[in-house]
Design a protein that fits this description.
Blueprint lengths: L3 E3 L3 E5 L3 E6 L7 H6 L1 E5 L3 E8 L4 E8 L5 H6 L11 E5 L3 H14 L18 E4 L3 E5 L3 E6 L6 H6 L2 E4 L3 E7 L7 E6 L15 E3 L7 H17 L15 H16 L5 H13 L2
Antiparallel strand pairs: 1-2, 2-3, 3-4, 5-6, 6-7, 8-9, 9-10, 10-11, 12-13, 13-14
Helix pairs in contact: 6-7
C-alpha cells in the first residue's frame, strides 16, 4: 500500500509485506514506545485487525499478533497495560472511516493464523542492560550477566557470587512486570532439576522495585534474551511453581505489603490481590 496513517504516539506505514510502526519520542509517549523506536511487523506475524471505539473521542486500530510471533509480546505474557500495547494505534474519532479502510486492506492481505513456529518480528538488539533492585543485568547477545548490589541483594545471592549465563544453557525467560508487587526477571536454565526458589533468593533472577527495572528497560531485555534462546535452538520452559513457603515468611511479606499500602505505594486492589496470593501459598 505504501501509505502512512498517523495517530497519537505512533504512525503506521503500510507496505506490501509488512507494517512499519514508528513511535514518537514526545514527552507524553509511553517510555516503552520511545525505547522501541520503530518496529517492522511482517504481515505473516499478524492474525487479525480490529477497529474499536476508544476513550474521549478516539478510535483504536489494533493488529493482533500471532502467538509466538513476537518475542516482546511473548515475554510480556499479557502483562502490558493497554496504553503500552505497541500494536495499538489510537486516532481521533474523525478518522474512523480512514482507519476502517486501512483495516480492511490489511485484513485482505493476511494469511497467517494460529501460533507461529518461530519468531517473525525482530527482537530489540543487544547489547542491553538495566539496573534492578538487587543488581545490574547485562546482555551482550551471547550471555546474560548479573552483578549483585551490596545494598539490595540477598545473602543467598552474595554467597553465590556474580552470575553469567550463556544463552546456549538457557531454556527461556520469565518476566513479571515491575508495575506489580514482587516483579522480577528470571532466567530458566536448561538443566534445572529442582523447583525454582523465590526470585529474591534465586541467583538466576533479579528482582524489581520502585524505580528499578522499569518496563521500558526490562521488557526489551527479556525479549532479546528470549529471541537469542530460540535462535540457539532451545524451547522456552514452563515455569515450575516454587515450594511452599514458611508461614513466618508469609506473615513478614504481608506486613511489608501493608506498609506499602499505608504509604500509598500499593493500591487497594493490588493489596487485596497480593495478600490473597500470599495466603494461598500457606
Amino acid at each position: 500500500m505504501g501509505d502512512v496513517l498517523a495517530g497519537f504516539h505512533a504512525a503506521w506505514e503500510f507496505e506490501s509485506d509488512s507494517v512499519l510502526i514508528r513511535y514518537e519520542r514526545g514527552i507524553r509517549t509511553p517510555r516503552l514506545f520511545q525505547a522501541l523506536g520503530e518496529r517492522r511487523i511482517p504481515l505473516e506475524a499478524i492474525a487479525g485487525v480490529t477497529l474499536t471505539p476508544g476513550r474521549r473521542g478516539t478510535v483504536v486500530l489494533r493488529a493482533e499478533p500471532r502467538p509466538g510471533a513476537d518475542p516482546l509480546m511473548e515475554a510480556a505474557a499479557g502483562q502490558l497495560k493497554e496504553h503500552c500495547d505497541p500494536y495499538r494505534l489510537v486516532l481521533p474519532a474523525g478518522r474512523e472511516t480512514l482507519a476502517e479502510y486501512y483495516a480492511g486492506e490489511l485484513r485482505a492481505l493476511l494469511t497467517g493464523s494460529g501460533p507461529a513456529e518461530h519468531h517473525l518480528v525482530a527482537a530489540p538488539e543487544a547489547p542491553l542492560h538495566f539496573k534492578a533492585y538487587d543488581g545490574k543485568a547485562s546482555f551482550d547477545g551471547t550471555s546474560v550477566s548479573f552483578r549483585w548490589s551490596w545494598t539490595g541483594a540477598s545473602s543467598a545471592k552474595w554467597k553465590a557470587g556474580d552470575q553469567s549465563f550463556p544463552v546456549a544453557g538457557l531454556a527461556g525467560v520469565e518476566w513479571r512486570s515491575p508495575e506489580v508487587f514482587e516483579g522480577y526477571l528470571r532466567l530458566l536454565p536448561r538443566d534445572a532439576v529442582t523447583p525454582a526458589v523465590q526470585a529474591d533468593q534465586d541467583p538466576a533472577a533479579v528482582v524489581f522495585g520502585l524505580g528499578y527495572g522499569p518496563v521500558h528497560e526490562s521488557l526489551p531485555f527479556a525479549a532479546a534474551v528470549l529471541a537469542a534462546v530460540r535462535r540457539a535452538g532451545t524451547v522456552a520452559a514452563v515455569p515450575v511453581p516454587g515450594p511452599r513457603r514458611d508461614p513466618a515468611d508469609i506473615a513478614e511479606r504481608i506486613r511489608h505489603l501493608g506498609e506499602l499500602h499505608q504509604a500509598g505505594l500499593v493500591t487497594d486492589e493490588e493489596f487485596s490481590s497480593k495478600k490473597a496470593e500470599l495466603l494461598a501459598e500457606l
